[in-house]
């Protein structure tokens, strides 16, 4: 795995949190994107070399809605950049990690993504993400 690509934060209201994080980081978010398959609307901030992704639920029973019900707003996942997501999934499975998406799926921000079950990672939801390379 490579650097931390971004930190994902679950929020109740994206517009309220966009304003809050703009104040906190001193920059406006640079994009908003809806991932319908996940039932989320996301926004991204760039702060120096770091990226923050805010996630708001667009459905009542999606993964972010469930997370907010259980834990409230806060850090939802840590995403690591990988060069080759398929080989990284294979490596982690081989190490005994439970991969939630054995076939990587299209995530926000032009990425292929896969998540590891937090039960196997000390409660931390880990996202692998690989830039989708233009052919
Ligand atoms: Zn993410």
What does this structure look like?
The protein is α+β, with helices and mostly antiparallel strands and 135 residues long. It is 23% helix and 38% strand. It contains three helices and eight strands; from the N terminus they run βαβββαβαβββ. The chain has helices spanning 14-25, 63-71, 85-94; strands spanning 4-10, 31-35, 40-47, 50-57, 74-81, 105-107, 111-116, 126-131. The protein has an eight-stranded mixed beta sheet with strand order 2-3-4-1-5-8-7-6. A hairpin with a 4-residue loop joins strand 2 and strand 3 (40-47). The longest helix has 12 residues, at 14-25. The two termini are 23 Å apart. The model has no long low-confidence stretch (mean pLDDT 94).
Structural descriptors:
135 residues, alpha+beta, eight-stranded mixed sheet, 8 strands, 23% helix, globular, binds zinc ion
Q: Could you say which structural class the secondary elements and strand pairing correspond to?
A: alpha+beta
Which shape, going by the Cα principal axes?
globular
Order of helices and strands: EHEEEHEHEEE
Give me the Rg, rounded.
15 Å
What is the multimeric organization of the chains shown? Answer: single chain
Residue ranges: pLDDT <50 for 5 or more in a row?
none
Total number of helices: 3
**β-sheet strand percentage:** 35-45%
Bound molecules: zinc ion
Mean pLDDT: 94
Percent of residues in helices comes to: 10-25%
Distance N to C terminus? 23 Å
Largest sheet: 8 strands, mixed
> What is the topology, as strand order, of the major beta sheet?
2-3-4-1-5-8-7-6
What's a concise summary of this model?
The chain has helices at residues 14-25, 63-71, 85-94; strands at residues 4-10, 31-35, 40-47, 50-57, 74-81, 105-107, 111-116, 126-131.
């Amino acid at each position: 795995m490579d650097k931390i690509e971004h930190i994902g934060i679950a929020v109740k209201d994206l517009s309220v949190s966009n304003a809050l994080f703009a104040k906190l980081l001193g920059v406006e978010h640079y994009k908003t994107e809806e991932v319908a398959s996940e039932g989320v609307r996301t926004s991204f901030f760039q702060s120096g070399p770091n990226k923050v992704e805010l996630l708001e639920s667009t459905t009542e029973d999606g993964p972010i809605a469930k997370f907010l019900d259980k834990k409230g707003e806060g850090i939802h996942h840590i995403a690591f950049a990988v060069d080759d997501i398929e080989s990284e999934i294979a490596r982690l499975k081989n190490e005994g990690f439970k991969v939630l998406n054995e076939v990587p799926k299209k995530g926000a921000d032009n990425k292929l993504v896969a998540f590891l079950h937090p039960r196997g990672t000390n409660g931390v939801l880990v996202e692998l993400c690989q830039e989708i390379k233009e052919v």
